[in-house]
Amino acid sequence: ERALVWFRRDLRVDDQAALSRALSAAQQVFCVFLLDRDILDPLPRADRRVVFILRSLEELHRQLAALRPGAGLIVRHGQAQAEIAALAAQLDVQAVLTNHDDEPAALARDATVRDALAAQGRQLLSFKDHVVFERSEVLSASGSPYTVFTPYKNAWLRRLTPADLRPHPLQPQALAASPLAGRIPAPAEIGFEPVALPAQLGVGSSGAEQLLDDFLERMDRYDRARDYPALKGPSYLSVHLRFGTISIRRLARLAHERMLGGLRGAEVWLGELIWREFYQQLMHHHPQAMSAAFRPAYDAIEWERGPGAEALFAAWREGRTGYPLVDAAMRQLLASGYMHNRLRMVTASFLCKDLGLDWRWGERHFAEQLLDFDLAANNGGWQWASSSGCDAQPWFRIFNPVTQSEKFDAEGLFIKRYLPQLSKLPAKLVHAPWRARPEELQALGLVLGRDYPPPLVDHEAARRRTLERYAVVKTAR
Ligand code: FAD
């Protein structure tokens, strides 16, 4: 028996469901990663994720080779149906094993690969790996999928047994040597620029390991630190969860053990991992909500359009709104491909409820820029902020960007990291510099309109317009 393991969002060897299954069932196991042209070709040529993937593949190859001399990762660049079927035929495997990817485009791709393999008399087998509970594994007592987080979380925790978090064993004896393995292309060879990655995020399983070590020291304080972007509060593991360079079962196990030991920080962090699964199962049950409002009434909202709206959108993307916390956050995103969760909420709310722009515009920008971009989580986050989601911020609740700034970056430390021109402003001026007298600002080396823009919109006026704009949803459910 020969098998081919097709790696996708599971770039590790330990506790990897499809790899584990193949190694226990077959005598000869080959490994492949496909640089999928259907995904890559439409991307901008400078994309941090491509560099993250390629570097993680190098590490994955080294790990496989260390398990068995001559073994390693085969990398192909092309279209999934043709490449996977051709490689399966070349290696003459009976089955291709992979892990579930429930994004609508991935499901469609897998269906075509399954058909192509079936035409050759081979199988495509797929396993749960990316989440602890998937699809319909957590349902309400009446058997329907949850659309509200807290009851979902409670049901998730009730359903959890030690077996759900047990790692998949790794028995490497069946890993097969292959002369095809080990040629990992450089970004330029597949048409991408070798952009730099933020050093602190690390790549591959070893990068994830370092972040986890660091976070384990801080996990018990997570509940108190996580909302303050100037602090090292969260784990920064999102990119590793996205590409599977760390196992979700392992993270959930660590958090769950500490939670049972009474650590509040671990309990809150586990709750975030459950949010991730909440949005994954929502995508499975409501794939239509990946491109339209989860609550259809919200698609009747009339967003700003035309050149004026385009200009507002450009100012938001480039961090030129005149609201320092929003601008610092947008610059963090451009500079690093990461944005703190509190700031994702603030900037997303600002786009829909201060600028009156369609949440899908913001969703698309985040999808292009975020290293950790994940369709289910990003769409969930945007629909939360725009109030069109299933368990969302109520439509009439509108974040005040200045109050958020005073509350979560009181000293302006985060703001000043990304907006050095505001570095001399005292805490009382840094959240809303336009409220100071021009002479006062000038004495601190700042001229509004020259060094930093005046506010793009007046929040109070924008708030009133938003309440009118959203009135269309009042009558609908
Ligand atoms: P931690 O606070 O350490 O959380 C641990 C893990 O839990 C994260 O790595 C992530 O996998 C998961 N998680 C945390 N919060 C959420 C959440 N609200 N929804 C789903 N999963 C969560 N997260 C993404 O992974 N990809 C996205 O594309 C994404 N887009 C977002 C867009 C908006 C508008 C908003 C409001 C949130 C978005 N999030 C997204 C969720 C959250 O902001 C990030 O997961 C988090 O900031 C990542 O940083 P961390 O790993 O340090 O998080």
UniProtKB/TrEMBL annotation:
Top-rank taxon, per record: Bacteria
Record keywords: Chromophore, FAD, Flavoprotein, Lyase
A GO MF label: deoxyribodipyrimidine photo-lyase activity
Record-linked SUPFAM superfamilies: Cryptochrome/photolyase FAD-binding domain (SSF48173), Cryptochrome/photolyase, N-terminal domain (SSF52425)
Domain Photolyase/cryptochrome alpha/beta: 1-132
Classification via PROSITE patterns: DNA_PHOTOLYASES_1_1 (PS00394), DNA_PHOTOLYASES_1_2 (PS00691), PHR_CRY_ALPHA_BETA (PS51645)
EC top class, as a word: lyase
Keyword Flavoprotein found: yes
Cofactor: (6R)-5,10-methylene-5,6,7,8-tetrahydrofolate; FAD
Keyword presence, Iron-sulfur: no
EC numbers for this chain: 4.1.99.3
Short name of one Pfam family: DNA_photolyase
UniProt family annotation: Belongs to the DNA photolyase family.
Family matches, as PANTHER family: CRYPTOCHROME, CRYPTOCHROME CIRCADIAN CLOCK 5 ISOFORM X1
Protein name per its UniProtKB record: Deoxyribodipyrimidine photo-lyase
Lineage of origin: Bacteria, Pseudomonadati, Pseudomonadota, Betaproteobacteria, Burkholderiales
